[in-house]
Protein: MerR family transcriptional regulator
Amino acid sequence: MRIGELSRRTGVPVPTIKYYVREGLLPPGELSSPNQARYDETHERRLRLIRALLDVGGLKVAAIAEVLQAVDEPGRPVHDVLGAAANRLGPPQPDDGDDDARSEARDTVQELIARRGWRVSTDNPAATDLAHALVALDRLGHAAFAELLDDYADAAEQVARADLDYVNRRVAVEDLVETVVIGTVLGEAVFNALRRLAHVDRSAQQFGD
Structure:
């Protein structure tokens, strides 16, 4: 297909496609004449992934390039490729300025990971995000919320199994990464909405007339 058709099929404007090619995010098309290039389904799949990383994941071009480098690295385990994408999705956490509280929260998170037997590195960004959340809870007078971590972990494991079972339906690595990005960002929105609905039901059971 020519670049115009690729644009129509993906919804990505032609100038944007050319920009992605210049930045090395998208491989150039195969030249069919000095001024014409042809594109195929691999370009369409890569464009879909780029847009998912950009529009859904909110990644910058430099971060997208790093994820695509992981996707294209021969023999790289799928687990590492998915991690390269997922680890860049979390929002940057501000410095809370409380070294003691942060250290205690990190210890709590590491104890949780060890207790659950999770195969997660100690510097995983999600572990840092959880530690920051615990520090914020403590500052607001809700340090006891940490007592619920295992209950939340039980639910998280069940959701993670469902997520990865869905991801596993895909074949191409790019499709896997796209699914992880969309599932992480929009899946969190789905889960949060379900949680709020469950809150309403539980509140009605406990406090309703």
About this structure: Strands lie at 30-33, 36-38. The CA atoms of residues 138 and 144 lie 8 Å apart.
